[in-house]
UniProtKB/TrEMBL annotation:
Keywords: 4Fe-4S, Iron, Iron-sulfur, Metal-binding, Oxidoreductase. PROSITE patterns: 4FE4S_MOW_BIS_MGD. It comes from the Bacteria. Pfam families: Molybdop_Fe4S4 (PF04879), Molybdopterin (PF00384), Molydop_binding (PF01568). Residues 3-63 form the 4Fe-4S Mo/W bis-MGD-type domain. It comes from Streptomyces polyrhachis. This is Molybdopterin oxidoreductase family protein. The keyword Iron applies.
Length: 740
């Protein structure tokens, strides 16, 4: 048997480590028999975590679907690709008005998600887009949208150069980082401390990240907005604020935060006023500093306010857009825009039908998907397309959603597994395994702590007749757009290329200004449409060769010549290029955000009920879909209810016994695990569990199903500005239960 090595960027989390895969066997049958970190990778330099090391098992999982499934006489059966696409065309029929498009997390990790999902969304042209963003980072997008005029302009902490990092509600030692792409995040935090820098962690749990910190603050969950805004109050009151020049609204912020003194928030947050002052002074005194917030700062009652506060602190301490602070990465495939004011950001251009939630970045809250499907009346969504999503487990009230999915007129899922969500589909279209897919990080290059660009072609070829995920989504887009069945799929790529080129040649600052788009299109290289589109984006991007304008610049050919990637240097200040607010300044005090502050002020006197629940992640997991890999299951990766011993005593719970947990949306049972790491009054359950449904095909996961924490929610607790579900810090009741 032949053995060879192939390079492949890991798609399993946001760290984007370069892997060196050992592959045995020829052609489409090649299997991964080993995975290690690629020591020569320009960005990850050999780092790999247990998930990356298990890449081969995940890739070869025998439960992965290898052929499409089509429902006939109530049962999902294997079918040919032609039959499956025909079934989709028949099933969607003329129902295009009422199609919900549901996008899950892996879309940010695939070429198909970046390049073809937008084409599918455009073909559907309706206003029913739902994604994992509204159970994740949407509050950050709203805050950045208002502050900088661009909801995708995320400042990223300059991890390798900062003197002081304040982490709010993130656990990168386990998650490997999010909205900040940094292979070996743990090593980079240790390096920060080794060079004399300071790490502060705000988290109701003493997590692995908190244990590494110089200072750990454990506030009451959901109170960070008040805590951080009180810190901002201190900066302003004590004359410690030294914001960058290009800000508007500083006086308005000062007035707005006047009531938020450390004393006013201390009891609410359960953090002493003196500590709030110290935190603010330390941040201001550090030569450079960055504030970094993640899930514990977004998926909470005041998610947008907290996200705004995170950036406010960075801005007020003069740390935005400077080395060692937080900077805006410049991705190799970004659209180059001339500096100058923009149109700004707004939400609510339309509203959801049932509860009237405002659209945010063209999306409606994932938590509202079930009601949009099951509530009768005009405009009811009757058709569902899911791509890489398992909302039955990842969104609130999966039981209601399951009933709605079972009842809809037609559902198609693009997914490699038959799981809790896809078991309701009428057609399942499985993409090939990761080794058979190309990889490029369109999303994460824009979040990386160091500029770089890397590309992996498929390590193993596809069998004849099997479409890759780009081809699957192309066909779906053509069907959704009503194209005749014999339409050449290449037409869609040609349209996308033409669109970008026409726009470029019309722009005076573009290196191809005034040229002929058709002639430029013929110069693109690449083995398929996706590669040609990547080539185009690279060539016209900020480091591009500009169709000959800069012979040393980037193109697909240059990337292919550098299999371990190309380093493009450290992050650099570029605020002027980023700002797209109408004023051309950072709009520090956006009206919609200011209007949400009274809600926060009103909550200050409220003492929440006895117990609140927060989530947690495990190192060897990834949301709902990695419990099926034997190497990644068992051990500490279990769905237990963590409880502080003091609470356990009060509630009559013992270690290893079963507990019943009740919330707005239902009740579940889980095994109790006592831990002193939680602050009392807080219990913790991981998400992505509940693999006990019939009709799924995830045999390893089904053996240890766990319980679905999101069943405790009914979908009504949302951060109003972003439509994001409150997944952290919601009230629950816990009592002893019979063993499950
Ligand atoms: N309570 C609670 N709930 C949470 C969270 C929490 O912290 N607490 N976290 C939230 C967050 S941050 C997120 S991002 C969401 C994630 O929730 P989802 O977006 O639903 O994502 P996953 O659970 O990761 O499920 C991914 C699906 O994609 C499929 N898949 C895997 N690889 C591919 C591929 O290459 N192509 C395609 N087409 N499909 C693929 C898997 O089989 C699975 O069905 O969960 C959210 N839900
Ligand atoms: N191993 C592994 N890695 C992953 C994933 C996974 O499932 N497993 N999922 C990936 C995804 S989709 C994402 S979005 C990222 C998420 O990346 P992170 O946000 O780093 O991961 P979490 O574990 O959700 O960390 C949230 C932290 O917030 C804390 N917290 C909860 N409530 C509050 C609060 O009210 N205030 C404060 N200050 N803290 C609070 C929790 O205790 C927890 O430590 O991880 C990614 N990486
Ligand atoms: S840290 Fe993330 S990207 Fe790196 S090997 Fe692990 S799962 Fe893959
Ligand atoms: Mo996420």
């Amino acid at each position: 048997m032949t053995t060879r090595t192939a390079l492949r960027i890991c798609p399993l989390c946001e760290a984007t480590c370069g892997l060196a895969l050992t592959i045995e066997g020829e052609g489409p049958d090649g299997v991964v028999t080993g995975a290690r970190g690629d020591r020569d990778d320009v960005f990850s330099a050999g780092f790999v975590c247990p998930k990356g090391a298990a890449f081969g098992s995940l890739d070869a999982d025998p439960d992965r679907l290898t052929a499409p499934l089509v429902r006939r006489d109530g049962e999902l059966r294997e079918a040919s690709w032609a039959q499956a696409f025909q079934a989709v065309a028949d099933g969607l029929g003329t129902g295009k008005e009422g199609v919900a498009l549901v996008l899950g997390n892996p879309n940010v990790h695939t070429v198909a998600g970046a390049l073809y999902v937008p084409l599918l969304a455009r073909a559907l042209t309706n206003r029913a887009l739902f994604s994992a963003s509204t159970v994740d980072q949407m509050p950050k997008q709203v805050a950045c949208g208002y502050l900088y005029g661009d909801p995708l302009a995320f400042p990223v902490p300059d991890l390798d150069r900062t003197d002081h990092l304040l982490i709010v509600g993130a656990n990168p030692l386990v998650s490997n980082g999010s909205l900040t792409t940094a292979p070996d995040f743990p090593g980079r935090l240790k390096a920060l401390r080794a060079r004399g820098g300071r790490l502060t962690v705000i988290d109701p749990k003493r997590t692995r990240t908190a244990r590494l910190a110089d200072r750990h603050i454990a506030p009451r969950p959901g109170t960070d907005a008040a805590l951080l805004l009180a810190m901002a109050h201190v900066l302003l009151a004590e004359g410690l604020a030294t914001p960058v020049e290009s800000v508007a609204g500083l006086d308005e912020v000062r007035d707005l935060l006047a009531p938020l003194t450390p004393e006013a928030v201390a009891a609410h947050c359960d953090v002493e006023a003196g500590t709030v002052r110290e935190l603010a002074r330390e941040l201001a005194a550090a030569p450079t500093a960055a504030v970094y917030g993640r899930m514990g700062s977004t998926t909470v009652e005041f998610g947008t306010l907290t996200s705004w506060a995170v950036d406010l602190l960075t801005i007020l301490t003069g740390n935005l857009d400077r080395p060692g602070g937080a900077l805006f990465p410049r991705s190799a495939t970004a659209t180059v825009r001339p500096p100058g004011p923009g149109r700004g950001f707004r939400i609510g251009r339309w509203h959801s039908r049932v509860s009237g939630h405002p659209e945010v970045m063209s999306e409606l809250p994932l938590a509202a998907l079930a009601e949009e499907l099951d509530t009768p009346g005009e405009g009811r969504l009757r058709y569902v397309i899911t791509v890489a999503a398992n909302p039955v487990l990842s969104a609130p009230d999966g039981e209601r959603l399951e009933r709605a999915l079972a009842d809809c007129a037609f559902m198609v899922s693009v997914d490699p597994y038959l799981n809790e969500t896809t078991r309701h589909a009428d057609v399942v279209l499985p993409p090939p395994r990761p080794t058979q897919s190309a990889h490029f990080d369109f999303a994460f290059n824009a979040l990386a702590v160091r500029h770089n660009v890397r590309y992996s072609r498929p390590a193993v070829p596809l069998p004849a007749g099997r479409p890759d995920e780009c081809a699957i989504l192309t066909r779906l887009a053509l069907i959704a757009g009503g194209a005749p069945p014999d339409t050449d799929p290449a037409a869609l790529d040609a349209l996308a290329v033409d669109f970008l080129l026409r726009r470029a040649v019309a722009q005076p600052h573009s290196p191809v200004h005034g040229q002929d788009p058709a002639a430029l299109a013929t110069r693109l290289t690449g083995a398929d449409g996706a590669e040609r589109r990547l080539d185009l984006m690279l060539r016209l991007g900020p480091y591009g060769e500009g169709f000959g304008a800069d012979p040393d610049g980037l193109s697909l050919a240059a990337l292919l010549a550098h299999p371990h990637g190309i380093d493009l240097g450290p992050l650099r200040p570029r605020l002027a290029e980023v700002l797209k607010t109408p004023s051309g300044l950072i709009e520090l005090c956006p009206e919609p955000i200011a209007a949400d502050l009274p809600r926060l002020l009103a909550s200050l006197d409220r003492r929440p009920g006895e117990l609140v629940l927060i989530g947690r992640r495990h190192l060897r997991s990834n949301n709902s879909w990695m419990h099926n890999v034997p190497e990644l299951s068992g051990g500490t990766n279990r769905c237990t209810l963590q409880v502080h011993p003091r609470d356990a005593e009060r509630l009559g719970l013992t270690d290893g016994a079963a507990a019943r947990i009740k919330g707005d949306g239902g009740e579940i049972t889980a095994e109790v695990e006592l831990t002193g790491e939680l602050r009392p009054g807080v219990v913790s359950l991981p998400h992505g569990w509940g693999h006990d449904r019939p009709g799924t095909r995830t045999s390893v996961a089904a053996a240890h199903p766990g319980a679905n924490v999101n069943q405790l929610l009914d979908g009504s607790r949302l951060d109003p500005l972003s439509g994001t579900a409150v997944l952290n810090g919601f009230p629950v009741q816990v009592s002893p239960a019979e063993a499950p």
